[in-house]
Amino acid sequence: MPSKPSTTLAPLKSIRITAHPIPAHGHIPNSSATGKPLLHYHRAFPSPSASTIEAHLTHVGVVAPRWRYTIYPTSHFHSTAHEVLVVSRGRARLRFGGDANPDAVVAQVEPGDAVIVPAGVAHRMEEDQSGGVFEMVGAYPVQSEHWDMNYGRGGEDHEGIVERIREIGWFDRDPFYGDEGPVLQC
Q1: How far does Cα 45 stand from its chain's mean position?
Q2: What phi and psi, each to the nearest 5 degrees, are found at residue 106?
Q3: What is the pLDDT of residue 3?
Q4: Is residue 108 packed enough to be buried (19+ CB in 10 Å), middle (13-18) or exposed (0-12)?
């Protein structure tokens, strides 16, 4: 593997990782379809910028950066790909698991935080706490050609959605730390 980019991650042993298995709720499968928890890497990038985050993700080669943006205010989930989110600017509260789910997780995120959102886990902006400048880098596994949008509402093919999610493989390497990292222990 080539040398690391000049901007590196915080050492794995120095960061806090929280894992949240989120049960299904209504037509939102959450962690139940994959058996994988939502993973929050607190302050993984000590000096984040969108370009350095993208360079690091590209270097590791597990996920490909696809967008820079905030996060939608409507709960949604993907059935065709896992999603990796890294905060490049601002602070926010994000909701994972669906709006009416009593087991939903509301996470405070700040620059440098990274979140692995397994396929099927609903997510949305709960509160932008930075005056409209909140930004994330969104990335998907390199083999994913597209990601869909599902909302857990009537009219969606719920059985087909769960079936697609179950067909998605999990990560063989950690999107941030490569051959080590919590994604490999799930």
Answers
A1: 15
A2: -110, 115
A3: 43
A4: middle
- Report CA 133 to chain centroid distance, whole Å: 19
Is there a contact between 66 and 140 (Cβ–Cβ < 8 Å)?
yes
Q: What is the pLDDT of residue 5?
A: 47
Which residues, given as ranges, of the chain have pLDDT below 50?
1-6
DSSP 136-173: EEEEEETT------B-S-TTS-HHHHHHHHHHSPPPSS
pTM: predicted TM-score of the whole model, two decimal places: 0.94
Confidence (pLDDT) at 76: 98
- Spatial CB neighbours of 111, under 8 Å, sequence gap ≥ 6: 45, 48, 87, 88, 89, 90, 91
Q: What pLDDT is attached to residue 8?
A: 77
Tokens 């969606």 map to which residue? 156
| Rg of the chain in Å (alpha carbons) | 15
- Residues 26, 4: Cα–Cα separation, whole Å: 43
**In this structure, are residues 37 and 97 in contact, taking their beta carbons and an 8 Å threshold?**
no
Strand order in the sheet with 92-96: 105-109, 92-96, 123-128
pLDDT at res. 125: 98
